[in-house]
Design a protein that fits this description.
mainly alpha, globular
């Protein structure tokens, strides 16, 4: 049985309190330093394939270069390609590394890591199918 409805809370159409989403966003932001450390450590780990590291490096390079497929000055859509590609890259390197290696390098809580995996999985699946196929072909070992 779920939590009882509170009359002073705001609920979305599915019946979930809206404040919970705000807490997830806050937790995701708090996970950022641990996520940066994780990616850095995975990039330096010799057990991760060079090809996977190159895919992540290429996507990070794309983010740094001012030329984009979708110009950044277009509101929201301009940054969406960057965010979705970054989410794909993070998800890819975590999947390639495997649970044991990721846990070895992760400083945060297990719940936070699961949240990161959930968010990056969801976001990377929002990429257009042709781009996903291309990225998967490039990263195939």
């Amino acid at each position: 049985m779920g939590d009882p409805l509170r009359p002073d809370a705001v609920y979305d159409p599915t019946g979930h309190p809206v404040a919970l989403r705000g807490m997830w966003m806050k937790e995701a932001a708090l996970a950022l330093p641990n996520l940066v450390k994780l990616v850095y450590r995975l990039m330096r780990d010799p057990r991760i394939s060079r090809k996977s590291k190159l895919v992540l490096g290429a996507i990070l390079g794309y983010l740094v270069v001012p030329i984009d497929l979708v110009p950044d000055f277009i509101p929201m859509v301009g940054q969406a390609d960057d965010v979705l590609l970054l989410a794909y890259a993070i998800r890819h390197i975590i999947e390639v590394a495997g649970t044991e290696i990721v846990l070895e390098h992760w400083d945060g809580s297990q719940d936070l890591l699961e949240l990161v995996e959930s968010i990056t999985g969801f976001a990377s699946n929002l990429l257009p199918k042709p781009i996903l196929r291309l990225l998967r072909r490039l990263s195939a070992a």
